[in-house]
Amino acid sequence: MNIVNDNFSSNKNLFKILIGLLLAFIISSKNYLLFHTIVEGWAVVISAIIYIIAVRTYKHSQNNYLLFLGISYLFVGTLDFFHLITYKGIMIFNNLTPNHPTQLWIAGRYLEAFSLAIAPCFIHRKFSRLGIAAVYSLLTSFFIISIIWLENFPNCFIEGEGLTTFKIISEYIISIILIAGIYNFHINKQNICSSMYKLLLFSMVFTILSELSFTLYNDVYGIMNFIGHIFKLISYSLIFHEIAIKGIEHPYDRIYSKLKKSAHTDSLTGLYNRKSFIEKLEKIYTRDKSSPLAILMLDLDNFKIINDKYGHQTGDRVLQEFAQLLEENIRKSDIACRLGGDEFTVILRATEGETAQIIKRIRNSLKKWKQKDSTLKHLDVSIGSARLKDGYSIDDLIKEADNNMYEEKENKDYNYR
């Protein structure tokens, strides 16, 4: 059934693409300027969306790769916008020729190709947002000023003659940069989810096809110009789907995961909390009553002295280190929890002898820990154990372990009290 649904979905998407291409061809044949405005306008909008999502979701996603692409595409989109408003027929700027938007196109593609090539380097590397933004601002300003106002950028298109050698060579250089970007992207693919890797890879391939198409046209309204813009539209749409949409989904998945984890774990020690202790104990109790079940109740003796003498920050550190000690001395199948304050518990599937061995390991580790830290001079632990017996409820099990723990605590005589 899933295969049928997947095939139907694929066929449906293919049908939409074919309809979209047909509409694009009809629009371009009737009014090429309208077609160009729609495609380039879409590219500008996507660039802005990528930037907004990358920056606004970074505190949740911590995705440096997406953040770098977001910043870079803001400036690529800026050059695309100037390419759009200077295109032949728009008539916003006076005395501009088809050479100017072609120059802006080349400048935008150099910036895009360079950004895609080095972006994988930032997958696990932080960078200065202001620093990157400053570099891109200077580059973008240089391109715009040198093309529109100073007019000292190399010519890319001459009316009546077509593309210049500089424009054609630049398209090949840009393609080589993108191929290098694909290689850099490929060697870092283990750090990128498979679906994003595949579509971003296709996006760069279509960008290369777009660049190669733009080496073949002699008319800014010609068929090869149309094909190049279609490839660019596909490339940007893939980026929109995988970066913009995933950029929204992944941070919220991360938030949900954190919230789910925080509902079941103690924020200070990372152990399961009281709620999880009850849930897991009930699950084990009802699932298999034939296996031995025991619990330990642990309470740190004289913990208040540490808090009063050294402060709550030291007290928190002691609780964290004791939680670690606890996990190191129980088995992987055992479950350690913090009930609150300086009270801990462990759920064990263990025989009486195994339980005694675990208790012994905890006490021995505590002694070694105290020898290394003078602040723990008065610290001790009272441990009460209880085993599941016929007719016992969960409450009976907890109550017996609690009573045994408090009985041990009461029998201790601290001469500094």
List keywords for this structure.
417 residues; alpha+beta; Rhopdopsin 7-helix transmembrane proteins; Alpha-Beta Plaits; 2 domains; four-stranded antiparallel β-sheet; two-stranded antiparallel sheet; 8% strand; elongated; disordered N terminus
Uncertain regions spanning at least 5 consecutive residues: 1-9
The CATH superfamily label of the largest domain reads Rhodopsin 7-helix transmembrane proteins
* Nearest-integer average pLDDT: 85
Identify the overall geometry. Answer: elongated
Radius of gyration: 33 Å
Q: What's the story with the biggest beta sheet?
A: 4 strands, antiparallel
**Derived structural class:** alpha+beta
Number of helices: 14
Q: Give the CA-CA distance, first to last residue.
A: 73 Å
- Highest-level CATH class of the largest domain: Mainly Alpha
Sheet with the most strands: spatial strand order: 4-5-3-6
Total number of beta strands: 6
CATH fold category name of the largest domain: Rhopdopsin 7-helix transmembrane proteins
What is the percentage of strand-forming residues?
A: 5-15%
Share of residues in helices: 55-70%
* Count of domains: 2
